[in-house]
């Protein structure tokens, strides 16, 4: 876990009534309950609403959602060389076709990949062909 993420989670837990992290604490990390008894999870819709508000504040359009984080994670794992069979298990998919939906590259990624193989301007290629 990145140290910044760990610090943020520990800060959140302190604010929500968990003074010290212990591995035997039961319940949900992100809970609607305060304190050590954390039986009610934060609803998915609440997280979606919160993140949508953050995205709106920084000017991202409606094409970005909470689910975008999952897609970004999957693409970055593949780009870093992770095998698709591992990623499939991490994402909890049984069918490789489902994982393929998550790993669709955006135009920037595609251009980056092409530039690794053909790092010359398209115009130069046309001059060679014509």
Fold and architecture overview:
It is a single chain. With 130 residues, the chain is an all-alpha fold. It has a domain at 64-130. 58% of the residues lie in helices and 0% in strands. It has helices at residues 3-15, 44-58, 67-79, 84-91, 96-102, 107-117, 122-129. It is elongated, with a radius of gyration of 21 Å. The model has no long low-confidence stretch (mean pLDDT 85).
Write the layout of secondary structure elements.
Layout: H1 3-15, H2 44-58, H3 67-79, H4 84-91, H5 96-102, H6 107-117, H7 122-129
Helix share of residues? Answer: 55-70%
Could you say which overall geometry the principal axes of the C-alpha atoms support?
elongated
Which value, in Å, is the CA radius of gyration?
21 Å
Number of helix segments? 7
Structural class: mainly alpha
Q: Helix-strand pattern, N to C?
A: HHHHHHH
Oligomer: single chain
What attributes does this structure have?
single chain; 130 residues; mainly alpha; 7 helices; 0% strand; elongated
Summarize the structure.
The chain contains 7 helices and no strands. The chain has helices at 3-15, 44-58, 67-79, 84-91, 96-102, 107-117, 122-129.
